[in-house]
């Protein structure tokens, strides 16, 4: 099993959720996060003062999938969230040793 953490633009969340649902991914965790990378934030004017905002609002999507599905899930996330501009995000992949469904006690991929 693999855990995928994807940091994406907030406006791309619905497209990514639909694409993952079409692949049979039936569970995910979504968090509102702030951060910056190459984009380095942005500058805005507030009451005549220039304000530099260093942290940008992003969405962190976490999903655990079978190792067999990893490539198609990553491809779906990239395809649906890519704009070609700075700030499209990143994907991180981790090995998952085990998972347990608390309600039933199932282990491994059966718990997904």
Compact overview of the structure:
Strands 2-5-1-6 form a four-stranded antiparallel beta sheet, with helices on one face. The protein has 112 residues and is of the alpha+beta class.
Write the layout of secondary structure elements.
Blueprint: E1 2-8, H1 13-22, E2 29-35, E3 42-46, E4 49-53, E5 56-65, H2 70-81, E6 89-95
Antiparallel strand pairs: 1-5, 1-6, 2-5, 3-4
Strand order of the largest sheet: 2-5-1-6
For the record, the CATH class is Alpha Beta
Shape descriptor reads elongated
Query: How many domains?
Result: 1
Poorly predicted spans: none
Mean pLDDT: 91
What fold name stands as the CATH topology?
Answer: Alpha-Beta Plaits
Distance between the termini: 9 Å
Whole-number radius of gyration?
17 Å
What percent strand? 35-45%
* Second rung of CATH, namely the architecture: 2-Layer Sandwich
Tell me how many strands there are.
6
Q: Largest sheet, if any?
A: 4 strands, antiparallel
Oligomer: single chain
What is the N-to-C succession of helices and strands? Answer: EHEEEEHE
Question: Helical region count?
Answer: 2
Structural class: alpha+beta
Helix content: 10-25%
